[in-house]
Request: fold
Amino acid sequence: MKFFRLLQPALASLLLLSLGGCANKGKAEREYGGVSDSDSVNGTAINGLGTPLPERQEGVSFLGSNVDHTRFSAIHFAFDSYTIGSEERGKIERVADFMQTASSTIVLAGFTDERGTPEYNRGLGERRAQAVRAALISAGGNASRLQTVSFGSEMPVDSGASESAWSKNRRTEFGVVR
Reply:
């Protein structure tokens, strides 16, 4: 009996952690309509925003040496959001204009800050990249030349543990394949 009393705090902590994960999952499903990145409509893969996903192109990688990461400024997001703010729209327009004159593929890489589980952050990073993709398509970008990837909280711009650092890490970056 004494053994179970010693285990009780650990079991209570475990229960709270598992409930916290369920709360995040339910919130994500409510906010994102319950559509996952692997869902399809009439056999066409769609992202969480309902736009068709292009086929992955062989040899296209955000981290490749043939990718220019400096051409465009990153799109930044509010905490736990994939909504593109009005102050970021000019960046979208610049990339869409570039796509009208160049034939390059653009890789959109979504990132988050360190808060949240790795799975949640990967999903949020993907939704951020997909939101930028949808905005680019709406602005005239060619959907077949846009690829997305999520790194979640990997590769932070600022490794600090403050709101200032976290705000820099909540982003989608553009990689122009040369």
Q: What stands out?
A: The chain has two domains: 1-31, 37-177. The mean pLDDT is 77. The first strand starts at residue 40 and ends at 41.
